[in-house]
Amino acid sequence: MKINPTSQTHKRIIRYAFVFGFLFLMAFIQPAPKMPYKKAGLTEQEAALHLLNRFTFGPKPGQVEEVVKQGLENWFLEQLQPAKDNEKVRVKLSSYTALSMPTDSIVNTYLQPAQLLRLAIAKGYIDKDSVDKTDRPAYREALKKLQADYGFRPLQELQRELINQKVIRAVYSDAQLQEVLTDFWFNHFNVSLTKNQVQQLVLPYERDAIRPNVLNNFSSILFATAKHPAMLLYLDNALSISNDNEYAKRQLKAAQRLVDLNAAKKMLAAAGVSEDSMQKMDAMENQMTTQIKKRKSQGLNENYAREVMELHTLGVNGGYTQSDVTELARALTGWGVKPMYEEGPLAKRFSNIPPAQLTRRGLQVEDCFLYSGEKHDENAKTILGKTFPANGGYNEGMEALAMLASHPATARFIATKLAAKFIADEPPAAVVDEMAKTFLRSKGEIKEVLLTMVMHPDFWTKAKEKEKIKSPFELAVSAVRATGTEVAAPYQVFTWSEKMGQKFYFYQAPTGFPDRANFWINTGSLLNRMNFGMAIAAQKIPGFKTNLLQLNQNHEPESVEEALQIYTKLLLPVANQKENSERIISIVRAQNIDLKIASASKDTGGMQDMQKESMTEMNNTPLKSMAQVVGVIIGSPAFQRK
Amino acid sequence: MANRRAFMKSGALALFATGISGLPRFITEAAAGTQMLPMYKKNKTLVCIFQRGAMDGLMAVTPFADPALQLARPGLFMRPTAGEGGSFNLDDHYAMHPSLKSLFPYFNAKNLAVVHGVGSPNTSRSHFDAQDYMESGTPFAKGTASGWLNRAVGLLNHAPTPFSAVSVTSSLPRSLYGDVDAIAINNLQDFSIQLKGNPMAAGKAATSFEELYDQTANELLNKTGKESFEALKILKSNNIKNYQPANGAVYPNSALGNSLKQIATLIKMDVGLEVGFAESGGWDTHFNQGTTNGIFARNLKDFSDSIAAFWQDLGERQDEVTLMTMTEFGRTVAQNGTGGTDHGRASCLFVLGNDVAGGKVYSNMGSLAKENLEDNRDLPVTTDFRAVFSAVAENHLNLKTNGNLFPDWSGASLKMML
To answer: For residues A616 and A599, is the Cβ–Cβ distance under 8 A?
Structure first.
């Protein structure tokens, strides 16, 4: 696509106009247009670090100074603007094929293992009597050949792209807040790769429903997730149908005809009708039985309706009842997924439906979303005291969701969750109140809510008192950013995050990861945080390139002590971390002094020769000492916090 | 091989702090300094194995006496036969699959019970949904944040140790989601400060880390840091790497065998394990599941031999442990067109322990004639899984659940424990 420079410039002007307009406005509302960090006793540097800690995946070397130079307010307002991938990210993602593929192409390219197997049998690549995988190599070869012949790609490749793009964007994107919020809102509207049915859809879900909306109005992200196939399948709304509408009644009539048919058949058989006609009648009977059975096995499914109120909008104490859940579920009956898998029977049947029939059955398609009027409950409903008249069709679901999006309970719930994410696990009530008010006033503008937050003194005062513990993903990415590590194998961040207790994209429950310190920190995960620190600093993570010398402008520290001074300053960048750095210095120094005494006196006791060697080597190699120092800093308590 | 000192210390202090013991400080302190702590009560341990993929309960423990079964699955039907390789007649109605040979003696010894017709009241036949419901223990609520095993440990309310709840898997299973600290670890040897190719640097760093975490003002990091290093030392001193199973037990070299071996290790180390969790996969047998041989038979043999080795290895510790298996649903009564079975409803599960009223198949299963089946195809659920889970948790762990283990459920526990 060709970019029109004029319109870009216009957009930029409009953006700046918005920025300045806002600042101008703030000047009247607040006594000072600045973020109130001075009152909280923070220097400008400290405040910049706090912003970087909370709204990015960790500061890069020199970034605190950059933010100070740009102006804290300017930096934040810039971060509030949705942005496209920057050059570095684009280059890194240029070979990722699925990222730009439409959802239905993804579904038809990255087949699920069961689909692949069935296709292999249907197309004669695998004999159905030998599917017990006894001959594994032959079995794999057959599947490989099928994939090659038809241009299918392994599903793991899709998952890998999904995982890697998250890592690459978190590390390299300049639109850091957009990425932090993508992480936040994905977790809020969680779907999971553990559910087979949605495995192909998580990438498009994040790409189409989450990321473009993270700085948008709350209702837009709610609608986008509600109508996305990943959510419709993950929380089963695609299965939820009404058995009490005109279409169901027609089907029941068909059942009656079947009974009649049976009676007729018996009569015909007695009268001696031809074998051929009898067989045709049998076939019809079978088809109808299957259809009716299928219809009857389905019904109302309340899962999405319950969770959209409990987890996505009102919150568990949001004042809704079981009856509200049921009524909302009824309003959302017929919300489903367009059949996309071309080798499956549904997609074929669907594409053959003539337009007239589409209308008659009330079928509406919007991208991958399919509204089926024939499955919708047509009766009137009452949700949270509001009556929705009969025959409201698709619109009543949208209206009900809009009502949830702008509900005061939602304002409070979302404000609390954002404050817990960005301020403290138990956020102060005053700032939450203000944020909730802004949410209601602005009708769910996420940017406005975030602005209210950073303009509130509590965001800054609590920064000193309360800390957030980095999630494993945040820890890994912040270490990469802080050390300027070049990441050629982004998947390693996933591997390590899993070890540290966050297998992202795989959290099974719709609650998403509980983002609080005591969930992230336990004995098993803590040791792996330390191991990660050592591994990244010692260059033991394949595909990670850390240049500690370059980090220090290619100046080699003269001594371990100097290394400590330099790298604590670089990795724990601002003065309020002084105490931490002093502590690290004294402890690591003590270790090294011990070591020197030990090697000087040659009193190595029962140590193995190999260990002796590595000891000597370490003392002689400043690089290794540097790596050790940096490893200890990254694994230290100070670096786990933000 | 016990080295409980570190945990006894925290355990004793916790007791003192909560005022349960009411003992003067000098006694608790003295107790903490000794190897044997009189008031330290050995924990009972519940070990759960989740068979992911939905095990065909009708093949594992087959109601061979029902003629309808043979009609529905002629290619999969087996009846008990005398001699080597035959299935084991349990009570003239049910027989155990030949692959369960290593477990059959425990059935005879009345330590092993089978519960048949177990499943969820939610009729979902999706693996994901059914596992999710079974693990959260709330078959009609997806948003339940915690898993039932995590709630069980929470209800026990014992002074926690780093190993109260351990899953030998790479990530935490849904059953252990929740407020109680639970860890997932694939290999106990990974529970250490380590750096590939440079053990010396790791050792040095470990000392630095220990001091740093000891001095941090952040309470959570401080406390967890201390626990981590204590745990690490205990594991180290117990020489996990060279663990030798007792009583001649030989674990199969399989994922499940290795998981159970590590759970046995933890049990014997007395580190306060209350719930151990392991998984077994490959039960989704849509194609050619076989009978006495084939995928199912192989998988079931691994399952049986792993559990039998575990039990043998425990030896005199068996009294402290009960093992329960579970699977998300069963499979169709009839065989399908590809020599396998499709997603069904009820399956069976196994409970092994000295406090189990074993040697019996607990079942309310009726005839398998088509008209008796759920949706004319599946073994109906006649025992709610929660009736079994709560029976085992209440009896073995001596847990007063008071409806908190399985919210929204008021059914009765199955009387299957001594």
So the answer is: yes
